[in-house]
Every structure is written in structure tokens, then in C-alpha cells.
Task: structure prediction
Amino acid sequence: MNRDSLKWLLVSTLKGISQVILIENAISGFIILAAITIASVSLGVVTLLSAVIGTLIGKIGGASAESVNQGLYGYNSVLTGMALSLFLSGDDRFLIALVGAAIASVFTAAMAHFMRKSQSEIPVLTFPFIVLTWFLLLTTYRLVSFKISPNLTPQSLSNWTLNIKGETDWLDGAVNGIGQIFFLDNNFSGVLLFIAVFWAGWRLGVYAIVGNAAALLTSYGLGGEHHLIFMGLYGYNAILTIIAVAIVFKETARYPLLTGIIAACLTVPITGSVVTWLLPYGLPALTMPFVLCTWVFLAARKIMPRI
Amino acid sequence: MNRDSLKWLLVSTLKGISQVILIENAISGFIILAAITIASVSLGVVTLLSAVIGTLIGKIGGASAESVNQGLYGYNSVLTGMALSLFLSGDDRFLIALVGAAIASVFTAAMAHFMRKSQSEIPVLTFPFIVLTWFLLLTTYRLVSFKISPNLTPQSLSNWTLNIKGETDWLDGAVNGIGQIFFLDNNFSGVLLFIAVFWAGWRLGVYAIVGNAAALLTSYGLGGEHHLIFMGLYGYNAILTIIAVAIVFKETARYPLLTGIIAACLTVPITGSVVTWLLPYGLPALTMPFVLCTWVFLAARKIMPRI
Amino acid sequence: MNRDSLKWLLVSTLKGISQVILIENAISGFIILAAITIASVSLGVVTLLSAVIGTLIGKIGGASAESVNQGLYGYNSVLTGMALSLFLSGDDRFLIALVGAAIASVFTAAMAHFMRKSQSEIPVLTFPFIVLTWFLLLTTYRLVSFKISPNLTPQSLSNWTLNIKGETDWLDGAVNGIGQIFFLDNNFSGVLLFIAVFWAGWRLGVYAIVGNAAALLTSYGLGGEHHLIFMGLYGYNAILTIIAVAIVFKETARYPLLTGIIAACLTVPITGSVVTWLLPYGLPALTMPFVLCTWVFLAARKIMPRI
Result:
């Protein structure tokens, strides 16, 4: 492997990491990697290796050079590797996480094919990561070498009672939303992630703050659990959604910021329902609310070009 | 707003109400609105406002004038508004219902995009209403301002026992099926709804009666719960299905009535399974059996043109 | 009906039976029918009648002669008829099985339409059989004339404990995998099924053995339940997957056997998760793991042509 190949791999890998928040920027990717590594060195290593694996599979498999270079085969692998290493327990979890990262890359290609051929012009987003992670977490109930983290407990909906009490900490809420995109609830990492986003463009950073604020207010106003709100669990989907709807795929929209804020607010009830839907299986919602709300608004925009 | 705009809005709105039963006819829409208002004035107001909201969002969003004028952005909003105001409780439910009606219109456009671009030539039907309503009802378990009606109770399938006993009342069964399309079980409203359908065309009315009869006999013959059968809960999907399969989208079919009756009968077991599938979540089946059976027959007809 | 029609019907029907394992060969179909009939005469009759019904509906409905002759409207009917007659109990189950076989043919056409029009060039596989069978099994909780087999019991995931102990019988494992494709766990039938596959091509037979071995080792290595492993319940999806990925739809692949083995191994964790997902409903996984893994690899291959 010569120097050029190494450089190419490094840049594509870092772009893969930044694509998790819909950004194609190697420096942002590097700052994100630093934010993750500061929170946990082993998580940082998993992130880097997952991005490398995803990118290499795209390259070796023969995907178009452009898409591989943009990091489009990296971000689902990054998220899958991180999620599996966090939501599984036991010694095998790092190996499973890296195999999962490899499969995520193949699954991303599969979804891209379905989306491309149907001419929907709708991006795959993080759908492959979400579905693959759910599947591999459910496997724990049948194969002993997959051990689920004790935090994920299936529960019958008929036994569920909602208790929203808990401290309100708006400062935590302000930085934890962006952290949760990468499964982090460390304030310093949250600040670093904002720097990564601002580096890629001031508008991205401002919109991320607006989206997070919209979700905080909506979830607080509608009466969500304070504990979850201020850990950022209602915010991360809103941040991704406003960036997707109001900036990255804004196209013909007349008032993209307004539509983006509405879409960000909508992620709050949708998060509530995805979490409820998954309760009997004890699975985390991941970024499904972001994917659903973004797909609805992007597809609707093809028919209603002004929204 | 001038007089022409008002007239346009009124006609499109009423057509939106009639599109719930696949009819584009403002007078029928008006009779349906009357049937609903007689059963409950507040429900009538929700219906009208939801149809107006859906239609206006289609217009403002820039959807094609033709589709907006046909009421195609109204019917999912009507159903979503009605369902949310009925299946939620508490004071906020009317506000939530109208916001839901607005989202339903956007979601309808999104689905229309996926269907159009995939060139499937398959209509969206009431899929957006169903999925959106399910999502917003599940939200009640996580956000206190969404309060679910006490009638909707999640239940574990392992604790379920089937008891089909109950009175048989064929007269109730004859009119309640069409009523349930609009969540009504009032006989007089049922008769008015039949008048609305016959107004749009005698064939529509006759087929609705045939579809309902097919479902009554099938569900009784296969041993469904009498209570549900005669409340019309096995009939409303059959009525919509026969109208869709045998009249509205009949195309190349050689024996459309026969295929329509078969499809109507099939909605009975499919209703049974959708209800079972939703039992752990306590959600209503809504018109999902109609959507599934109609999609299968309409799509199959593209490959098997004679059915 | 003249002699030519009868011969056509016989050949298309037998091809329909062989299409269950992605083979178009009337002799193989005949051997498979024999393997089933040896295990159970009534099951053999259901198999034959279901294949006839599916094929005739394709013909009468006006599907393209080529697809009907290849048996493409038979295999989903065969599997649906067999599954319903095995997983239901009571006297009506044979009638329900044959009606189910008829609907399966229509559903296959519907899915083929969606796949064709979206230009995905991805085959329908056994998806219609799986979904239809699940739906009709769930119906048993609502209609008394549908009686579910006592083996299928819904169970809450929170009460589930995994116990992998049990005898290891590698010989049983070697032949039961292929048997389970047709719901058989009879060694002699398993051997006959291998003969049917080898008759259609030695490569098909060898790959089936390789795929089964890969699944046995993977499921044993990852710690699956021995009882299920050696009954072939982790093997049958792997066999179908390796045949689909490495032979039937191999196209541009550079190392089809390697990719096929990876896909076959992947069916093991996916089987674990599909089974877990269905646990609250007491439904069997059927060939869903095969369909999911094959779709992912075939669709990914359109974007990554070398895999």
C-alpha cells in the first residue's frame, strides 16, 4: 500500500465518520473521532476501525469511486460498530461489532440500489444501521455468544407506567442532544461535536442548535420524561432531521428553515411512538425517528415543491 | 379571499370527505358530513376542519391543482382527525387531531411520491392515515399530553381467549358496516351514508351492500365474534375493498364483481390477523385490511390482467 | 381438457414444486413430491394440489405463459398449502390450505409487479408465502374455524430463557437442513431431496451441502440451541441462500462461492432475530431469513458488482 492509497483511505474514512451527521468533511470527521475517543478510547478505536472496514468493503466490492470517497459506505458502519459494542456485553462484542460494520456496508449498498432504481431520489440515511443493529441485538435471545447489555430489557406494554418527573437541566440538554447522535452523554464531547459541525459550515451549527432547542421545548411542553429529555434522547433525531430537511436536501423549498423546524418538532412524538413500539423487545430507537420524519418531508417535497 | 376561492375550497373539501369511500362528489361529501354531524356535532366540526386543513396544505405546498381539486389531500386528513379525536382523551385531543390532519396531508404527498416514482400505478389509499394514527396513538405511552382512550388496552397474546358468543342482529350488521368507515355505529347515520354512496352512482351503492353482505356471511361462517360482526367491524373494510377492486380501479378485469367479492371476503381473515398483530399494542385495525387486500389485488391485476 | 394440456399442467406443476429450491426441473420436482409423500401421504396430496392450483390461477389470470411454465406461480402456493396444513389443526385445515394456496398465487403476482416496476431486478423469492402464512396463522386468534396447532404458543420475550443444551447429532444435522425446506425431519426424505437437487446439477447439490455445513458450524460455534440446530432449523435458510447468491443469481460476482458462504453464515444470526421477533406471536420464522439475506446480497451486488 503506497502513500497515496493511505491518504485516500484516511480521508474517505474520516469523511465516513462525518457523514453520520450528513457532512462530508474530513477535518470535521477527525474532530468527531477525537470527541468519541475522549469519552472512551475503546469506542474511538471501534469507530475508526468500523469506518475503515465500511470504506474498504465499498472499494473492494466495486462501488462507484465517488460514493466511496464521499464516505457513503462508512457512516452506517461507524454507527453499527459503535452501537453493537455498546449494547452488547461480553468479550466477543468488539469482534461482533466489526463484523456488523462490514455487513452494514453491504446493506447500505443494497438499500442504495432499491432507492436508486425506484427513482425516488430519496437518500438511504441511517436506515441500514438501524435495522441491522436491531436484528443483531435480537439475536442475543437465541445465540449465547451474543450477550445483550443488561440495560436493554423487554417489557410488556400492559405493565408500562409513565413517570415524567426528574430534574430539569437545560445546560445538559443543550449539549447532550448532539452527543447522543454518537451515543455520548459527556458535556465536553458535546462541545467538541458542535465545533466539528461549525467547522463544516456555520449554518449547520446554528441549525443544529435550533433543531435541538425545538425538540427540547416540544418534548418538555408535551410532557416527556425529564430524565430522557435532558440526556438528549429527544434531541439527537431533531438535530439530524433539521440538517437534512433544511440544508442538505432543501432543493426547491421556499421556507426550508420553517419546514425543518416543523420536521424537527415532529421527531418528538415519533420518538415516543418508536420507543413504545420497541418496548416489548427492549430495543433502543436509534435514529429511526430521524429517518422516518426526513423521508416523509423529502418525499412530500417532490409532490409539494414549496414545503 | 374572494368568492371563487371560497367556492373552490368548499367543493375540494367536500370531495375530500367523499374520497374516504373512493368517491369524488361534493354532494356525497356533504351528505357524509351531515351523517357524521348528526351522530356528534364535535366530530362533524373535526371532520370539516380536517378536510379544509388537508386541502389547504396541498394547495399551499404546491401539489398539482388537479389532485388537490379531486380531494386527494383531504381524505387522509379527515380520517386522521376523526380517529385522533375519538381514540385520544383529554382536552388537548382536538388540537392534536387537527395537527395530525395537517401531517396526514404531507404524509399523503410523500407516499404518492414513492408510488408514482416506482411506476407501480398503485394508489396510496388510506395508508398514510393508518400509519400516522398508529404512531400518534403509541406516543401516548411516552408524552403525558397525549392521553389514550381507556378503550384501547394493550394485551399479551398469551392471555387472549376468544369468545364469539353474543347476539346476532342482522339489521344492525346491514347498516353498521358502512358506518364504521367513519367510526359511527348509529343506524340513522348508516342509512345516510348509503344515500351518499347511491347519490354518486347506483352501482357503488349496490356493490357496497354486496361487499358488506359478503363480509357478514364470511365472518359469521368462519366463526368471528358476534359482537364485533354486528357492530360492522368486519364489514367496513370489505365495502371499501369491493368498491376499489370492482369499480374504481377495475381496468382490464374480465369479472370485476367476482374478483371484488373474493377480495371483500379476504378482508375478513386479514382483519382477524391485523387485530391480533396489534393486540400487544392495543391499537385499532383501522382500514389496514382494506389497504392490504386492495393493494394485493390491484398489483396482481397488472401481472394477471384478467382477474 | 386434451392430452397436451394435461402434460403442460403436469410439467408446470412439477416445476412449481422444484422452484421451492430455486430449480426449474420437472424430474427434480417429482422426486421432491415423492420425498414429501413418503413422509406423509396427506402432505403429498396437499403439495400436489397446491402446485396445481397456483399454476392454474397464473394461467387463468393471464400471467405471461413463460413465467407460468417455469413454475413461478407454483412454489409459493406449495409452501403456503404445506405450512397451513401443518401449522393449523382441525378438519377445516386442508380446505384453508388450498384456499391459501390460491391466494398465494395472486399475492406472488402482486409482489412480482412491485418488483418489476421498481426495476430492482430483485426476485420475489418466497416472500408472499411467508407473509400470507403469518397472516393466516394470526387469524386463528379471532375466527374459531381457524385452529392453531398447539405447538405454536405466543410467549412474552421478558419470560424467555435460553437453554442451548441438548444432544449433538451431526448426521441428523447433515440431512435435516434440506428436509426443513419442506417442513420434513425424516432422514430418508432428506436423502431423496438431495438426490432431487443433484439431479438438477451437481453444483447445486455440492453448494447445498456446503451451505448447510456452514450454517451448522456457525450456529454451533455461536452457541445456538442444539435441539434446533440438529433438527435443521438453522440450516434450511442457509441452503436456499447459498443456492440463490452463489448460483442462480450470481451475475457479475467475482467470488460467488465465497459471497454465498458469507450470506449462508449470516442467515444464522438473522434466523435468531426473526425467531425472537416472532416470539410474542408464536409464529414460525419460515424462510424469512433466506429472503432477507438474499435480498441484501443481490441488491448490494447491483451497486458493488464484485461481491
In short: The beta strands of chain C are 88-89, 147-148. The longest helix of chain C spans residues 93-117. The longest strand of chain C covers residues 88-89. The CA atoms of residues 136 and 142 of chain C lie 11 Å apart.
